[in-house]
Specification:
Elements (H helix, E strand, L loop, with lengths): L5 H4 L5 H14 L6 H9 L5 E5 L5 H8 L3 E6 L2 H10 L4 E4 L15 E4 L12 H11 L6 E6 L6 H10 L3 E6 L13 E7 L6
Parallel strand pairs: 1-2, 1-4, 2-3, 4-5
Antiparallel strand pairs: 5-7, 6-7
Length: 200
C-alpha cells in the first residue's frame, strides 16, 4: 500500500464499521441506493465489464451486477471489502490501493464508476496518479463517472487539471447522479470522463 488515505487519517476510530452498518440499515429500510448504478447502466451496453473504484460496502457494484454487468469492486479498506463480499456475493471484490491499481491480468473494462466521495478520501497528492491508473484500466472512449463533494479539500479545478494530465477528456458534468444541471456554485459534481482513442 502507498501513503495513508484520508479515509484512514481523517476519520475517527470505528468509522469504517459505522459506515458498514449505516448502509446495511439503509438497504434494510428500502432506501434507494442505486442512483449511481442507474447512470452507469444507461451509458454502457448490456453485459458490460465495469470497474467500481473505491467500492466501499459494494452497493453500487451489486446493483450493476443485478442489471447483468460483470463488475469488479476495488477498495483499500479490507473491512469494507469483507463486508461487501458477505453482503453481495455476485460481484468480484479486490483489496487494492487505487494509486497502485494493477488489474492487468484482467481484460480492460468498458466503464468505471467512482462514487461515494472516493476522490476526497484518497491520499493527499495521489489524485492524478489514481486518475491515470483508472484511465489505464478502461478501454478508449469508455466512460469513467466520478462524483464527489466539491466543498472539501479537493477543489474541482484541481480535479479537472489532474484528469487532463491523465489523458482524460471531460464529456459531461452534472450536479447529481440523476443528471440535474451543473452550476458553478454547486457543492457536488458528477463528471463523466473518457480517454480518447489514440490518434483521435
Amino acid at each position: 500500500m502507498g501513503k495513508p488515505t484520508r479515509w484512514q487519517t481523517d476519520t475517527s476510530p470505528g468509522h469504517t464499521q459505522w459506515y458498514i452498518e449505516r448502509f446495511r440499515r439503509m438497504a434494510a429500510d428500502g432506501t434507494d441506493l442505486g442512483g449511481e448504478a442507474r447512470l452507469l447502466d444507461a451509458m454502457v451496453a448490456p453485459g458490460s465489464r465495469i470497474l467500481d473504484a473505491g467500492s466501499g460496502t459494494g452497493r453500487v457494484a451489486a446493483e450493476l451486477a443485478a442489471r447483468g454487468h460483470h463488475v469488479v469492486g476495488v477498495d483499500a479498506d479490507p473491512a469494507l471489502i469483507e463486508a461487501a463480499r458477505l453482503d453481495y456475493p455476485a460481484p468480484e471484490f479486490v483489496v487494492a490501493d487505487l494509486a497502485e491499481l494493477d488489474l492487468s491480468t484482467m481484460d480492460r473494462f468498458d466503464a468505471a464508476v467512482v462514487a461515494g466521495n472516493v476522490m476526497v478520501f484518497l491520499a493527499p497528492e495521489s489524485e492524478k496518479v489514481v486518475l491515470t491508473r483508472l484511465a489505464a484500466h478502461v478501454r478508449p472512449e469508455g466512460p469513467i463517472a466520478i462524483g464527489f463533494a466539491t466543498n472539501r479539500e479537493y477543489p474541482l479545478d484541481a480535479f479537472d487539471a489532474h484528469a487532463a494530465a491523465a489523458g482524460l477528456r471531460l464529456d459531461h458534468r452534472f450536479a447529481t447522479w440523476d443528471l440535474r444541471p451543473w452550476c458553478e456554485d454547486g457543492d457536488f459534481a458528477v463528471t463523466v470522463l473518457r480517454r480518447p482513442t489514440e490518434g483521435s
